[in-house]
Design a protein that fits this description.
Elements (H helix, E strand, L loop, with lengths): L2 H5 L3 E5 L4 H12 L3 E6 L2 H12 L5 E5 L5 H15 L4 E4 L5 E2 L7 H19 L3 H7 L3 E5 L12 H21 L5 E7 L20 H13 L4 E4 L1 H12 L2 H11 L9 E2 L1
Parallel strand pairs: 1-2, 1-4, 2-3, 4-6, 6-7, 7-8
Antiparallel strand pairs: 5-9
Helix pairs in contact: 2-3, 2-8, 5-7
The chain binds NADP nicotinamide-adenine-dinucleotide phosphate.
The site of NADP nicotinamide-adenine-dinucleotide phosphate has 30 residues, from α2 and α5.
Length: 267
């Protein structure tokens, strides 16, 4: 089956669809005949992207909401089930990056990162579980990061929430397997989006966003459980994961290329 045939006639909710990875996934899947719901906070950007999707002949709806707001995400679920009857693909992609150096660690930034990346992912996927279990089908996708696999320097908030996202999707995968529902986790390397539009640290093997969307689409169609990309970063991540702590502690700050004067901030 051609890749686009997997998406044709399906419906998808994508959070974080006002820019970057989420927006590009919505545009790509719309071009393949998938109805798309685009969610994020910036309504005008969502509406522009949804209009682009509709121009490709699918139903597309812009839903302005903060993923950390449980009631707002449940309302999105209600609205979409009323509109389409069922949502096949739920993509928890909304997220914030950030830097939070240990010696000046900012708990406000940490809390915000947890609320958006971790609670926000649960608020996105969990409301759809009952309808998927009832129909014994559906795919839940969490967009984590390769930063999930070790505590990256100056990134305690980001790395810890990305690791927790992966564990959430994994537990759901095990629990929902017997109910016909697939839960999976995507771990991108560096992708060209507004989130990486800075020079605070080195970002090797950067991937154009459309290439990233194709790779994510293939991983979902193949119902991968866990998907790491691009392959050179997957290889680096393998060595990163097996590196002993004494070496990791000395090497990682050096090769990350981070500036010394970084202040805590969301990206
Ligand atoms: N780019 C990379 O190199 C990279 C690498 C690994 C993983 N990722 C992950 O990929 C995902 C998408 O990132 P991106 O690179 O596409 O960055 P991006 O262009 O900055 O997009 C982030 C998206 O998340 C949305 N968002 C942020 N906070 C939100 C909230 N509270 N409620 C609803 N939506 C919210 C933003 O929309 P609003 O501001 O309009 O709400 C935006 O649409 C993130 O989870 C990120 O951690 C990215």
């Amino acid at each position: 089956m051609a890749l686009k045939d997997f998406y044709k006639g399906k419906s998808a909710l994508i959070t974080g669809a006002s820019s970057g990875i989420g927006k590009d996934l919505a545009l790509l899947w719309a071009s393949w005949g998938c109805n798309v719901a685009l969610a994020a906070r910036r309504g005008e950007l969502l509406e522009e992207a949804a209009a682009q999707c509709r121009a490709m002949g699918v139903d597309a709806v812009a839903l302005s909401a903060d993923v950390s707001n449980r009631a707002a995400m449940e309302a999105i679920r209600d609205q979409l089930i009323e509109r389409w009857g069922f949502v096949d693909l739920v993509i928890g992609n909304a997220g914030v990056g950030g830097l939070n150096p240990g010696h000046v660690f900012d708990l406000d930034i940490h809390k915000k990162t947890v609320e958006i990346n971790l609670i926000g992912l649960a608020n996105t996927v969990v409301p759809f579980i009952p309808s998927m279990v009832e129909k014994r089908q559906g795919v839940l996708v969490g967009v984590s990061s390769l930063a999930a696999f070790r505590g990256l320097p100056k990134a305690g908030s980001y790395s810890s929430t990305k690791a927790a996202q992966a564990r959430l999707m994994e537990s759901l995968r095990v629990d929902l397997r017997g109910y016909g529902v697939h839960s999976m986790c995507i771990h991108p390397g560096f992708i060209e989006t507004p989130m990486t539009d800075h020079d605070d640290f080195t970002m090797p093997f950067m991937v154009p966003v459309r290439k990233s969307s194709i790779l994510i689409s293939k991983a979902i169609a193949k119902k991968k459980r866990v998907y790491l990309y691009p392959w050179p970063m997957k290889v680096l991540t393998f060595f990163n994961r097996i590196m002993p702590c004494w070496l990791y502690d000395r090497l990682m700050p050096r090769i990350s290329g981070q500036k010394d004067d970084i202040k805590p901030k969301l990206l």
